[in-house]
Amino acid sequence: MLTIVALLSTLFASPAISCSDSSWITNSQLCLGSPQVWEARPSPGKGIGVYATRVIEPGDTILSEPAMIHITPPEFRDGVPYLLGDINTLLQSSFDALSPQQKAEVMSLHAHMSPTEDANDTLMAIMRSNAYTTGNSLGLFPKGARINHSCRPSTSQYWNPQLGRRIVYANRRIEEGEEISATYIPLLYSHKARQRRLDQYGFKCTCEACALEHGARQASDQRRQDLQKAFAAFEPQLTLSVPQSVAGKRKARKRAEASVQLVEQLEEEGLADYYVKAYHIAAIAHAKIEDWKPATLWANKGFETSLLADPNALSAGARELQALTNHLIIKWNAELRENATR
Ligand SMILES: [Zn+2]
């Protein structure tokens, strides 16, 4: 019983955000990023890079940045590639409204030009090379744009509509002096497929995952492709129904084991953007075999990890994990009571 009480007391405490400098904390409970935590300086072979000026702990905010250019393309639909030609006018008028200093900051960003483009297309190329989607809009964040790509990134990012800022936070410990990295592309692809996707940014990735020697890189490729298949296979299974047949129960036990492997492979690859999804899968897979303790702990881990990108648990995903954890605690508690009365 003590275990449950102790667990309950930690589950719904304040969000699992660690701000190593209390001056970062605002009313919104977010660490807004100390100007001392990073610096932009030359990165060998990559132009400019962003480096940690001190140790950054997981969950610490590195950047909290409003968009310098923020435009809503007409008829933009989330997840549908936008036509850059349609936004040219909006982009130019937004740029014209900037101060000379801001204009210089925008124009100093990397622009990957196609052979058919000329100097008149530079602003569009900068946008294409650096912009992020923010809900139904497109935002250009010049400071965050300095963070170079890695296929094993040390940061994750999200758009906070309440603050009107893009938040970049550490998804693992980052050492003082280490270059800070982000991903520009989805990462559950082989080295070759990732390089193809990065062609649009005009560089070949030489990150630690891409620089592995042949055998290790093949193993990494295999893991990433296996992970993509595993996510697809688990997706339709994300319900709490418990199988009743012997064969169904056997299959569910194998799935629970596979869900732990999924988490282990992700952690081995260092792909933090996929952790919440994997913890959710592991929670459901253990609930299906009525193994309530690991199911509860996985759900809670998923919930706590989701708070890194959603400190006030406002998203449907975070609320779902919170409700799932609550539900599983009740199941686990009932099991403990039952065992105690035997
Ligand atoms: Zn890479």
From TrEMBL:
Signal peptide feature range: 1-18
Entry-linked InterPro entries: SET_dom, SET_dom_sf, SET_domain_protein
Top-rank lineage group of the source organism: Eukaryota
Entry keywords, A to Z: Signal
Limits of the SET domain: 36-185
Record keyword Transmembrane present: no
Protein name: SET domain-containing protein
